[in-house]
Amino acid sequence: MDLHDVSGYRSTLERPSLVFYARPLKHWIETDPAAGVDLACATVLFDNMAFNPITQALPARFVCDLSELDSAGASIELLFGEAFASRPARQEALNRLFEIVLIELLRAAVKRGDACAGFLRGLAHPRLVKTLSAIHADPGQAWSLATMSKLAGMSRSSFADTFRKEVGETPLNYLTHWRVSVAQAMLKRGTSLKMVSAEVGYASHAGFLRAFRQATGMAPREWLNSAAAASAPPLGSPVEP
Predict the structure, then answer these.
(1) Is 1 helix (H, G, I), strand (E, B) or coil?
(2) Cβ proximity of 160 and 149 under 8 Å
(3) CB-CB contact of 197 with 208 (8 Å)
(4) Measuring CA to CA, which of 118, 164, 192, 236 is 20 to 30 A from 94?
(5) Within a domain: 201
């Protein structure tokens, strides 16, 4: 089976493999007409594609032998079984199973060193992971460079330099982007603008508006009414087999 995409990439896949395109890129597969191939395809829908740490950290195209997905063998067998059967709650089962496969894919990318500068590279760092996990869990906390570096057990200068090298931007810029991303998800769920700004860590409503416009180029209400907001489906939308 040969995999092609419009970038000119071509690869012959001789063993059961997983192919993941983190960003839209037209691709196609050529197979031996006599032998054929069994395929299970899925579309993963993320909130706020403009700033999604996972898709930004992965290479545009990730290809790996299924044997590289350490503990996903049983999940993949179940996924194929559900994909080619007609059982009650089939779609819900497929969604959950593919989430497990996606986690294994991310682990494989980190293990192979294929993760681009970004969230995944940060998670692979024994000190940065503590700060990144805390920021993602509680973006509304009063974060400063001092509190971030203390959590990582590093000096401020060492933390700032390491964070920029591994994640690709300064700690405070990353925090702003993550806060705005969380705010976008809350706005799409119908949360009031005033409540959103407080929840993501802005004591000043004006400060939140400035940060949002700086990150997106639009005011929150303008973004919410835009085609960009309408075209980003909510996290957890169905995965189509």
Answers:
(1) coil
(2) yes
(3) yes
(4) 118
(5) yes
Asked if residue 159 and residue 217 are part of one domain, the reply reads yes
pTM of the entire structure?
A: 0.61
Task: Give residues with Cβ within 8 angstroms of 12, minimum separation 6.
Answer: 1, 2, 3
What distance, in Å, lies between the first and last C-alpha atoms of the chain? Answer: 20
Domain holding 85, by residue range, is 2-39+59-112
Q: Note the pLDDT tens digit of each residue in 123-174.
A: 778 899 899 989 988 999 999 999 999 999 999 999 999 999 888 889 999 9
- Residue 77 one-letter amino acid: E
Token pair for 200: 């993501």
Q: One-letter amino acid identity for 213?
A: R
Token readout for 152 is 């990582």
Residue 231 has which token pair? 């075209």
Of 22, 128, 151, the C-alpha closest to 142 is: 151
